[in-house]
Each structure stands twice: as C-alpha cells, then as structure tokens.
Write a structure and sequence with these properties.
Structural class: alpha/beta
CATH topology of the largest domain: Arc Repressor Mutant, subunit A
Distance between the termini: 87 Å
Number of helices: 6
Number of domains: 2
Number of strands: 6
Largest sheet: 4 strands, mixed
CATH superfamily of the largest domain: Winged helix-like DNA-binding domain superfamily/Winged helix DNA-binding domain
Strand order of the largest sheet: 3-2-1-4
Amino acid sequence: MTAPTIETIYFSRMESPIGKLLVAASEQGLRYVYFKNDGPLPQKKDEVWIESAEKVRPYEDQLQAYFRGELRDFTCKLDLVGTEFQKQCWNALLRIPYGATCSYGDIARQIGRPQAFRAVGMANHDNPIPIIVPCHRVLGANGTLTGYGGGLGTKEKLLRLEGASFRLPRSQAQSEDHAANNIRSTQATFEY
C-alpha cells in the first residue's frame, strides 16, 4: 500500500479594501482566497500549509492591483480543485468580462445544462478563488445582488469597483431609500 501524497500549500494573510484575505497556493497555482480568515487554517488531511509571503506575493500583487483599479484581467496560474461540474461553472465565470454581469441561468446555459441554475449557484458558493474567479459578477435573474461568500456588501463593493450595473435586493434598496428620505426631511427641517 502506498503512502498518501501530502501536498504543500503556501499561504499568507493580506489586508484589502474588503477586509483581511487568506491567500493560498500550491506549486500549480492559486488554490484558495478566503474572506476574513483569522481562524484556524482550512487545510485538508492531504495538505500541509506553510506560511510564505514570498510564494504568495505574485497573487497578492495582482489582487492589490485589482483593488487599486489598475488590473482588469488576472493572469496568475490557477489550481482549481473540484468536481468536473464545478470546474465547468468556474471556467464559465472566468469568461465574464470585467464590469459585466450575468445570471445563474446564463452560466447554466453556457455549460450546456440550462435547468441546472440552482446547481450553478451551489458551484458558485463552493468557488475556492473568489474575486479572481469572479462569482461576484453573477446576479439573480432580475439583476439583483444575491448571496455571496464574502457578504452582499462585499459583492456590491466589487461590482461598484468594476463599474458593473446591478440592482440592490428589495429590502436593502428600501432601507437606502428610507435613509435618503430621512436625510432629505432632516435637511428640510433646517431650511429657513
């Protein structure tokens, strides 16, 4: 019986405009980007994680350039690990241009599974490399923001950075309208 192969994953934590990110890569390319990860490392049983800012720096540099608005297309190597269906979905995400959006149904049709929009949503949920594999560019069928691993606020920030068009969910849009109306009525109170 052969011993299981242990894979080395290099990682680093970086600050970003959307909070702290944990960035991790194998020798084959970027493997993970995790949001707000201060806790224990999410290593699997066949992985050993080694902190190495040097090994992860090229990926962090591209992410920082993206956040500064200087990079629209990531060129770093990716090491996507998932089911065949997930990889089809993630590769479809990689074809969504910067600043553009599509729906889960659009992705399902692209991969030849037009009824699988819910499964596409689950594949997006399991995307191990958000931002670079841009699941934030996928909206509900009516163009509204829908679930995102980093939270809807993060999804909104990323889409605004890219200049993408989207609609806020009804409850969020109503609370923003309510806040704007409160500001207007407060301002009207102080007018003489």
